[in-house]
Structures are given as C-alpha cells and as structure tokens.
C-alpha cells in the first residue's frame, strides 16, 4: 500500500478502501460492458464528512475523482479511465433516511440510498416518491440526480429536476454546499442546486438531497391498447389528457418488433400484436372502482384495434412486467445500437417515419426496435442489426447515429433524454448542443473545478 492509499484508508477505514482487482471488478466496467477502467482504488465513505475529507485530499494531490452510485450508467459516465490515477468514490454505505416531513411532503436522504429505499420510506408514511425506473433496486439517488433521471411517470410528476427541493454537495476543493432546503419558494438569487442536477458528477459530488413527496394514490386503472399507427397513438395521448388531465400518469408506446421479441423470449406475455401497443395508466385518490368505471366508459367511446384492461392488481402487475422486461428481452437477441432520444410528443410520428426511411435506405432490412415514454417524448430507439449476420453492427454505429441524430434535431429534439452523455455521446454533444450553451457550461466547470478533478473525460 502506498502512502496515498494509507491516507485514503485513514479516512474511510482499511476495509472500505478497495484495491484488490476482484473487489473492484463490479465497479470498473459499465452496465453495458463497453468501458472498463483501472482505478487507483475505490473508497466507500460512510458520511458527508468522509466525502469532504476524501475530496480535499484528492484536490491537494491532483487525483481525479469518479463518483459512482449503483453503476447503472448506460453511457460510461461512472467508469474510470485506465491511468490508475482516478479514485472511485462509491456512496453505497451512505443510505440514511435523514428526515421525512409528511406534512410538508418532503424527504431528506443520503445520496447513496437506492431509489427503491426512498420509495419504501415514503410509502411507510403514506406518501409517494414517484420516480420509477427498471433499475430502482440498484440505482442510487445521487446517480438519479446526476443524470436528471426520468422514467415512467414523468408525464405527471416530472424528472428529478422537478422532484428536487434541495441538495448537499461536496465541491471540487472540498468545501460543502449545504442547500438542503425543503421550500417550494425561495427568490434569494440563483437556485444553485440546479447546476448539479444532470451534470454527471463533473461539478461536485452530491451527498444528500431533499426531495418532493406526493399523496399516495389509492386507485389505479391500467390498460394495454392496440393502435394501427404512431399518429393514432399520439391522438390517443391527446384524448386521454383532455379527458383525465394529470390523472394520466403513464403513456408508453411499444412497437411491433419489440412486441415480437418479448413474445419470442417469454411466450404468452403478449395478449395481441399490433403496429403499436400502448401501456396506459391512470392514478388518483378515492375509490378504485370509480376510476376504473370512468376509464371503462371512456374506452367504450374509442375505436382501439384491441386492448386489455386490468381487472386486478395481478393483471396490472402482468402488464407492467411486460414493459419492464423489454430491455432484458432485447438483450437476449444480441447487441444493439441504443438511442435515448427525445422529441416533442407531437413530432413522434414524423420522426419515426422520416428516420426509419433514412435508416432503411442506408441499411436495407435494418431492424428498428422502438419503445418508451411517449407521453413526454422520450423514445428508446434501438438498432438491432444493420447487415445480415449483425457482424458489422458497431462498425456502422457512427453512420447510424449520424442519421438518427440528424432526424432528432430536425424536430428540435435531444440525443440524451434521460440516460446522460458520459463517455458515449461526448463527441456528438459538441456537434449538436448550442455553442453558447456549451460555452456557459464550460465556464461554470472552470469556475468550480479549475483543475478538472471531478469526473474528467466526459462532455465538459
């Protein structure tokens, strides 16, 4: 052990400074297996004071820091480089629920709490923390904040940015920003916490957060509906919003290729096949029967190709399981070029038509697997193969991405709706992000982290 290792161990304890390759293995490769690094070590602090001491030491020694939550990044944002000079700081020992104020609809937690732990803590006092992700059992609040996570209920509740009241952040020089306010209103200057939400750990290390809670719904009504086109899907979204307002919690689109993949690997999961399947959920207070009756009445006046309305919690869970299994089912089919894109919901049909035609012209027979959160315009738009045998898939990645992003920005969209930029998309961001916005972001980075020790090698 070097002197630096000894000083790091003195802060967190020898057992909480990982240096053995076997112990480090789960932390040095990203979730998709595209990036693998070689860190100096991984430190596991138990408190904000230990984080502060670690960052202060690293700043003095010129050691770069890679913050890491549950290591569920799909873009390599939490993976160290191969220099052996970057310290991973993992927060999995920081899982304290500090305070719940049910009357104020707020909860303050350590950044190492998993999303599921926060959901459960809120439910224990009859409240809802609405962020919902497939990785909620392992992803951590700090990571959710650093990528401005969205998920399945953005349509009603918003992203992490909208769900955050206050933050506690250790800055790159080791000073502590204590902005753990539980206020909804505060006009005392700039809301500086916003700088750190979506920054992917490049401006500071989030150690705590105060988050919004909501009334716990007592009624749900969930359906899987079939439509013949993307245009019909968006028409259904508009009609549902007009009828049910913010009781419409989820509106997901699942393409037919996606449905076929799910059925192939999990026979019997699909009750029908259609050009597009829509997973729709309403939620509300009051009696479940009243919401169900209202939804049934509305459905009776529509002209859906087919559909299933859940009649029990078991049936509701089955419909949700179908949606949650999509990524795993697709993974079984082999690799894919993944896109986490967003366009205005109204532009989804035009984007799908124009981008699909351009990809097919460039790669005849290309298979496009599209699904996602159509209520907020966020689609997971994945290319499963570009040539027979799929051998050339990643050779074609830049060409595929160029086509996809050209069409995304034609409709004033984004190449990263909820998964972030990380290492994967940094070179694309400089091409598509407004140059003035990029200059402002780089200026903030220079001001807060002039020696670039916080998660270097990303998009800043």
UniProtKB/TrEMBL annotation:
Pfam families linked to this entry: FAD-oxidase_C, FAD_binding_4
Keyword set includes GTP-binding: no
Keyword annotations from UniProtKB, A to Z: FAD, Flavoprotein
Stored InterPro entries: FAD-bd_oxidored_4_C, FAD-bd_PCMH, FAD-bd_PCMH-like_sf, FAD-bd_PCMH_sub1, FAD-bd_PCMH_sub2, FAD-linked_Oxase-like_C, FAD-oxidored/transferase_4, Oxid_FAD_bind_N
Residue stretches making up the FAD-binding PCMH-type domain: 35-216
SUPFAM superfamilies associated with the record: FAD-binding/transporter-associated domain-like, FAD-linked oxidases, C-terminal domain
Keyword Flavoprotein listed: yes
Family of the protein in this entry: Belongs to the FAD-binding oxidoreductase/transferase type 4 family.
Name of this chain's protein: FAD-binding oxidoreductase
């Amino acid at each position: 052990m070097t002197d630096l290792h000894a000083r790091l161990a003195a802060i967190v304890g020898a057992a909480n400074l990982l240096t053995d390759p076997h112990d480090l293995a789960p932390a040095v490769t990203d979730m998709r297996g595209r990036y693998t690094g070689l860190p100096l070590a991984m430190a596991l602090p138990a408190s904000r004071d230990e984080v502060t001491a670690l960052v202060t030491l690293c700043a003095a020694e010129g050691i770069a820091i890679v913050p890491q939550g549950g290591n569920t990044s799909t873009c390599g944002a939490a993976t160290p480089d191969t220099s052996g000079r970057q310290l991973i700081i993992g927060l999995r020992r920081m899982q304290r629920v500090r305070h719940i104020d049910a009357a104020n609809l707020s909860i303050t937690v350590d950044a190492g709490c998993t999303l599921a732990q926060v959901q459960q803590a809120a439910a224990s006092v009859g409240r809802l923390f609405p962020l919902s992700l497939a990785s909620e059992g392992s992803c951590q609040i700090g990571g959710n904040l650093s990528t401005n996570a969205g998920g399945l209920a953005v349509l009603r509740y918003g992203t992490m940015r909208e769900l955050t009241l206050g933050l506690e952040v250790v800055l790159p020089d080791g000073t502590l920003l204590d902005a753990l306010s539980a206020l909804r209103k505060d006009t005392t200057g700039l809301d500086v916490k916003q700088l750190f939400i979506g920054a992917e750990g490049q401006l500071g290390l989030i150690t705590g957060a105060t988050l919004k809670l909501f009334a716990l719904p007592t009624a749900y009504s969930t359906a899987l509906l079939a439509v013949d086109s993307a245009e019909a899907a968006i028409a259904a979204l508009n009609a549902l919003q007009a009828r049910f307002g913010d009781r419409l919690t989820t509106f997901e689109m699942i393409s037919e290729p996606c449905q076929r993949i799910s059925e192939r690997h999990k026979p019997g999961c699909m009750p029908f096949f259609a050009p597009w399947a829509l997973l729709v959920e309403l939620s509300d207070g009051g009696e479940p029967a009243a919401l169900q009756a209202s939804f049934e009445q509305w459905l009776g006046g529509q002209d859906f190709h087919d559909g299933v309305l859940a009649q029990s919690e078991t049936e509701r869970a089955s419909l949700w399981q179908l949606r949650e299994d999509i990524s795993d089912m697709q993974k079984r089919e082999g690799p894919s070029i993944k896109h986490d894109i967003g366009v205005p919901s109204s532009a989804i049909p035009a984007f799908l038509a124009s981008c699909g035609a351009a990809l097919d012209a460039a790669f005849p027979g290309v298979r496009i697997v599209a699904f996602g959160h159509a209520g907020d315009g966020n689609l997971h738009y994945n290319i499963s193969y570009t040539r027979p045998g799929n051998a050339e898939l990643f050779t074609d990645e830049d060409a595929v991405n160029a086509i996809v992003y050209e069409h995304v920005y034609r409709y004033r969209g984004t190449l990263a709706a909820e998964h972030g930029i990380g290492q994967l998309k940094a070179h694309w961001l400089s091409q598509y992000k407004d140059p003035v916005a990029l200059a402002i972001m780089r200026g903030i980075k220079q001001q807060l982290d002039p020696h670039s020790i916080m998660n270097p090698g990303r998009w800043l």
